[in-house]
């Protein structure tokens, strides 16, 4: 499903050059639930952003499905992200000025989906994460775990083939973390969604199919 | 998308409140400014209805020693003859002090079939007045020597007054009267409107009454039309003659062209000052809008990053931000237009209502343009925000 070949990422500022990813090749199968671990600053988020087409590698090539993404321009990238990928972040990234339902609808706004269908799909996604009774709330009126569930609903509302999650349980206590983890596992199992998750938690990583460890920009296992 | 943006703005209404008010105030200022400018332009485009360029005005103090009517008449006849005999002079006419571009004004309220017409500009004129000013007769005739004897005193009115009183029907032959309905006047003619206050002023309703020699002793103004050879030398000869004739009187000769310029200047001055003040205000508002949008975009970096991540292109993001400001402007404009239409409805100023509507249109276009331009650059900037970096910030 996802094929990375010799990916390198160099961050250049006027004074320093950081090699965030140093020659990583990785194949992720369709329907796989992969976790990535490693010490802080080793390049996990960078790698995930590259897979998510949010960041361009300095070197190497990416294929997702049967498409070579390298060299895609802004518009095609955006369309691809919108249709194929779902994102979950450690800090949720909900829009606080929009109600839960409107937050969940967001990805469909950039597609040709009618108003009514959008509502319906968003409501369904919220039901999946068990938040049907919070549709009219604002994010600030929710707990951390609830917020992350809204974010998951937003990630799955467009029925993506791949979900990329960067420390989705990082801000949550273990009970709430487990809840989130269960939702992701179910998504993977029932819908066959490919999931790539960055985590600091060995316990969470243990629940996934495969674990990749990074150190200083390189894969160590 | 529209609904989405509206929700976004609506939910942030308290944050957007200041900007809303700022846009509203600018709209009102631009509206008021363009009302006066539009009004001036409309008036400016109207014909003058006369030719003031070759006209000079003479003013004198009327202090003749004699009380004998016959000798007074003879005296003024002689003065008129003499002035007319200068080769540089084409026409001469005594008149009341109310002449175009002068600082004096006299008005009368009149009535016709029970309807009152107020503040009609009242001109006291001689038979040659129409020739001095090259005015245009639209209907009937101007005064002549035969009007010395009458049953109902003859009166000439201008087109504006005629339209109000008689519509499209002819006015000639109609009887009108003063407000108290004591003296009756017979309309003998209608002249084209004369723009007599300034180039930017509206035409007032006007009436012309013939002065006969009996009232000459009350007058202190002579108007003359000069030929193209009238120069400074002629002016000093004329001046010398007049001071010799009107002893102990201060004589003033003014060119209508200069009087007109002076009037135009004093009429335009307040608008120019208003324009400068409004200009500063608008620059301020523009910077304010720009600053707020700039600040918003930086504050909303993570939102922008998220939108990019879930499928918005750079262009979509910048279109969204520009549309948001335009939508915000629309809310202010709805409120603004509501206030602005009160002006014609309540007749706040003495201007025709189409002036206000044109001004509302101008102000709407202006505000949209202003907001559009101010949000274009921040919007473009936002499009350039790299999603990975934007998501990094929180
Ligand atoms: N935009 C950037 N500009 C410069 N350097 C960057 C940038 N983003 C990341 N880096 C550097 O790249 C390296 C990898 O960063 P990354 O965010 O991928 O780490 P991480 O493994 O996700 O860490 P954490 O577990 O703390 O989230 C770090 O050294 C970081 O300083
Ligand atoms: Mg990270």
TrEMBL record, chain A:
SUPFAM superfamilies noted in UniProt: P-loop containing nucleoside triphosphate hydrolases (SSF52540)
Entry's Gene Ontology cellular component terms: membrane protein complex
InterPro entries the record matches: AAA+_ATPase, ABC_transporter-like_ATP-bd, ABC_transporter-like_CS, MacB-like_ATP-bd, P-loop_NTPase
A Pfam family it matches: ABC_tran
Keyword Translocase on entry: yes
Domain ABC transporter: 2-220
GO MF terms held by the record: ATP binding; ATP hydrolysis activity; transmembrane transporter activity
The UniProt record lists the keyword ATP-binding: yes
Keyword set, alphabetical order: ATP-binding, Nucleotide-binding, Translocase, Transport
Similarity comment: family membership: Belongs to the ABC transporter superfamily. Macrolide exporter (TC 3.A.1.122) family.
Descriptive protein name: Putative ABC transport system ATP-binding protein
TrEMBL record, chain B:
Organism, scientific name: Pedobacter duraquae
Sorted UniProt keywords: Cell membrane, Membrane, Transmembrane, Transmembrane helix
Cellular component aspect of the GO annotation: plasma membrane
Boundaries of every ABC3 transporter permease C-terminal domain copy: 275-387
Transmembrane residue ranges: 20-42, 271-297, 326-349, 355-377
Full protein name: Putative ABC transport system permease protein
Annotated MacB-like periplasmic core domain residues: 55-238
Compartments, as annotated in UniProt: Cell membrane
Gene Ontology MF: a single term: transmembrane transporter activity
Membrane topology: Multi-pass membrane protein
């Amino acid at each position: 499903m996802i094929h990375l070949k010799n990916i390198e990422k160099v961050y250049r500022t006027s004074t320093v050059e950081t090699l965030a990813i140093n020659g990583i090749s990785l194949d992720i199968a369709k329907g796989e639930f992969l976790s990535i671990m490693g010490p802080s600053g080793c390049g996990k988020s960078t790698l995930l952003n590259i897979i998510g087409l949010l960041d361009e590698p300095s070197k190497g090539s990416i294929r997702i499905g049967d498409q070579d993404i390298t060299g895609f321009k802004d518009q095609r990238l955006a369309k691809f992200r919108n249709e194929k990928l779902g994102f979950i972040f450690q800090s949720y990234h909900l829009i606080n000025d929009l109600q839960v339902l409107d937050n969940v609808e967001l990805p469909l706004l950039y597609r040709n989906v009618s108003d009514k269908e959008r509502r319906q799909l968003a409501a369904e996604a919220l039901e999946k994460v068990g938040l049907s009774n919070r549709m009219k709330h604002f994010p600030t009126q929710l707990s951390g775990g609830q917020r992350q569930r809204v974010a998951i609903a937003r990630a799955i509302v467009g029925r993506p083939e791949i979900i990329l999650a960067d420390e989705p349980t990082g801000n949550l206590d273990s009970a709430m973390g487990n809840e989130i983890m269960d939702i992701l596992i179910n998504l993977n199992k029932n819908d066959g969604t490919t999931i790539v998750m960055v985590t600091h938690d060995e316990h969470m990583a243990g629940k996934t199919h495969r674990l990749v460890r990074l150190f200083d920009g390189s894969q160590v296992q | 998308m529209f609904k989405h943006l509206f929700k976004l703005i609506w939910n942030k209404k308290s944050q957007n409140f200041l900007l809303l008010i700022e846009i509203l105030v600018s709209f009102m200022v631009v509206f008021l400014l363009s009302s006066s400018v539009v009004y001036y332009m409309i008036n400016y485009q109207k014909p003058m209805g006369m030719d003031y360029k070759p006209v000079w005005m003479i003013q004198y103090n009327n202090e003749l020693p004699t009380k004998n009517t016959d000798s007074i008449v003879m005296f003024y006849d002689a003065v008129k003859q003499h002035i007319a005999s200068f080769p540089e002079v084409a026409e001469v006419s005594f008149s009341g002090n109310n002449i175009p571009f002068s600082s004096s004004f006299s008005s009368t309220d009149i009535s016709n079939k029970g309807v009152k017409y107020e503040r009609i500009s009242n001109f006291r004129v001689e038979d040659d007045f129409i020739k001095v000013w090259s005015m245009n007769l639209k209907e009937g005739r101007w005064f002549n020597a035969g009007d010395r004897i009458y049953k109902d005193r003859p009166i000439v009115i201008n087109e504006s007054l005629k339209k109000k009183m008689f519509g499209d029907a002819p006015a000639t032959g109609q009887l009108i009267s003063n407000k108290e309905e004591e003296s009756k006047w017979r309309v003998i003619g209608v002249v084209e409107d004369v723009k007599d206050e300034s180039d930017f002023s509206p035409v007032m309703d006007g009436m012309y009454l013939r002065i006969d020699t009996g009232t000459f002793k009350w007058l202190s103004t002579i108007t003359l039309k000069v030929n193209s050879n009238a120069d400074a030398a002629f002016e000093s000869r004329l001046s010398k003659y007049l001071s010799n004739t009107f002893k102990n009187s201060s004589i003033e000769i003014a060119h209508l062209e200069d009087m007109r310029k002076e009037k135009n200047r004093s009429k335009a001055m307040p608008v120019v000052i208003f324009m400068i003040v409004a200009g500063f205000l608008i620059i301020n508002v523009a910077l304010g809008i720009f600053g707020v949008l700039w600040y918003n975009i930086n504050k909303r970096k993570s939102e922008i990053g998220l939108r990019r991540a879930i499928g918005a292109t750079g262009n979509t993001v910048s279109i969204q931000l520009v549309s948001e400001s335009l939508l915000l402007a629309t809310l202010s404009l709805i409120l603004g237009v509501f206030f602005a239409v009160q002006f014609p409805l309540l007749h706040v100023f003495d201007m025709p209502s189409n002036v206000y509507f044109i001004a509302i249109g101008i102000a709407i276009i202006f505000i949209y343009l202003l907001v559009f331009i101010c949000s274009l650059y921040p919007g473009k900037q936002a499009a350039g925000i790299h999603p990975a970096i934007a998501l990094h910030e929180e």
